[in-house]
Design a protein that fits this description.
The protein has about 300 residues and is of the alpha+beta class. The chain has a single domain, classed as Roll (2,3-Dihydroxybiphenyl 1,2-Dioxygenase, domain 1), CATH 3.10.180.10. Helix content is about 20%, strand content about 35%. It has a nine-stranded mixed sheet with strand order 2-3-4-1-5-9-8-6-7. The chain has a seven-stranded mixed sheet with strand order 11-12-13-10-14-16-15, with helices on one face. Helix 5 packs antiparallel against helix 7. It is globular. The N and C termini lie close together (about 10 Å).
């Protein structure tokens, strides 16, 4: 079986107490640059972030502000319980109007935790001057008009998906990397400028898999929930009922928690760069086990 080529793991988000130190370690560990800090997130007062580019995939780190700690937000409570940790898995979907409805109906049927649309009079790589945004309405289609870039992100409750789950659709859409210079709003709109000069660093080409430990749900049931929500040809091998297959050889693995404070995103596999020495096999950082694996052609 094969998935829609657009359906893939596009971003992982981490939660950390010290944004600059964590980001510095990650950029060194993965030989990858920071390409975006979201000014709108910082302006909200509770969170700051960085986005590191791994090929055309992105590793985000989020850090609560002093105000967030004072007000005891969801993020600060999670840090108190788990320490620095994996926070969110983000999957790119071919049609957010379909996937948002099917994801929202899974599990408890809580629906959307949050969602936004973004529209900007620009082309990929030219920045975000003039961007407009608003709250996403379940089932709405992404606007796709000449002369603009657009994107939608929709998040769903971790109790239903084992971790905070997000789906993304952006326009113009995506070709095979490194020819991919399509829009991807979470990482801004200038990262595309560097792709031709340096498609990826010397360590990894991007994500091969994410490992998720649901806090109080059966891993097999959560895996099936993701498949029912994402659709688009995602599939489960009966011999591996807790592994969801996406496109490009990617997968999502669901496991039993190793301890009460090791839930959510607990592991990430990364494609190693072909024809280079593997820089490490496995390393633990920010509550996540990172593994370098050989790239698999689908």
């Amino acid at each position: 079986m094969s998935a829609d080529p657009v359906l893939r793991l596009r971003q992982i988000c981490l939660l950390a107490r010290d944004l600059e130190w964590t980001t510095g370690v990650l950029t060194t560990l993965f030989d990858a640059p920071v390409v975006f800090r979201d000014p709108r997130m910082a302006a909200g007062g509770n969170l700051t972030n960085t986005h590191i580019r791994l090929g055309d995939s992105f590793l985000e780190t989020v850090c609560p502000s002093d105000l967030a700690w004072k007000n005891s937000t969801t993020q600060t409570r999670l840090l108190d319980r788990n320490g620095d940790c994996g926070y969110m898995a983000i999957v790119q979907v071919p049609d957010v109007s379909i996937a948002s409805r099917s994801m929202a109906s899974q599990g408890s049927g809580r629906g959307i935790v949050s969602g936004d649309w973004n529209i900007c009079p620009a082309t990929p790589g030219t920045g975000l001057a003039g961007v407009e945004s608003g709250r996403y309405v379940l089932g709405e289609s992404l606007p796709k008009n000449p002369g603009v870039i657009s994107g939608v992100n929709v998040q769903f409750h971790p109790a239903d998906f084992g971790t905070l789950a997000e789906i993304q659709e952006n326009w113009p859409d995506h070709n095979v990397f490194p020819k991919n210079k399509g829009a991807y709003f979470p990482a801004g709109n200038t990262w595309q400028r560097e792709v031709d000069v340096r498609p990826y660093g010397g360590v990894t080409m991007g994500f091969a898999a994410v490992e998720i430990a649901p806090r109080s749900e059966d891993p097999v049931a959560v895996c099936r929930r993701w498949m029912a929500g994402l659709g688009a040809g995602s599939w489960i091998d009966p011999l591996e009922p807790a592994v969801l297959r996406l496109s490009g050889g990617q997968s999502m693995r669901f496991i039993e928690p190793r301890s009460s404070d090791k839930t959510g995103v607990v592991g990430v596999d990364l494609w190693t760069v072909p024809d280079t020495d593997k820089k490490f096999n496995s390393i633990d950082f920010c509550g996540v086990t990172w593994k370098l694996v050989e790239h698999v052609e689908e």
